[in-house]
Amino acid sequence: MSQWYVYIIRASDQSLYTGITTDVERRFAEHKSGRVGAKYFRGRSPEQLVLVESGYDRSSASIREAQIKKLTREQKLQLVG
């Protein structure tokens, strides 16, 4: 069973994108390439990984991602420090 990560990326418009992956560096590179990254990054570009949480399986990573996405912007900013 592979380890899953929950991550948050700060975009060029200062918005925050949350996702999950088994390889954070590869996924960030995919987002930057624009070809296989999220549609979210069309019209804005990923600037910086601001949070990576580890120790999840696929199910718990999806649950944590959903929890983070429900937070307000202010709560997300507190989370990323």
Whole-Å distance between the termini? 30 Å
The CATH class designation is Alpha Beta
Q: How many structural domains does the protein architecture include? A: 1
Q: Could you estimate the helical fraction of the residues in percent?
A: 25-40%
Spatial arrangement of strands, main beta sheet = 2-1-3
Q: How many H/I helical runs? A: 3
CATH-scheme architecture: 3-Layer(aba) Sandwich
Order of helices and strands: EEHEHH
Low-confidence stretches: none
Strand content: 25-35%
Q: In terms of structural class, how would the helical and strand content be classed?
A: alpha+beta
Report mean pLDDT, rounded to a whole number: 95
CATH topology: GIY-YIG endonuclease
Major sheet attributes: 3 strands, antiparallel
Overview of this structure, please?
The chain starts with a strand and ends with a helix. The protein has one domain: 3-Layer(aba) Sandwich (GIY-YIG endonuclease). With 81 residues, the chain is of the alpha+beta class. A three-stranded antiparallel β-sheet has the order 2-1-3, with helices on both faces. The mean pLDDT is 95. The longest helix has 12 residues. It has three helices and three strands; from the N terminus they run ββαβαα. Strand 1 and strand 2 form a beta hairpin.
Secondary structure blueprint with pairings:
Blueprint lengths: L3 E8 L4 E6 L2 H10 L12 E11 L1 H12 L3 H8 L1
Tags for this entry?
3 strands; alpha+beta; globular; 81 residues; 3 helices; GIY-YIG endonuclease
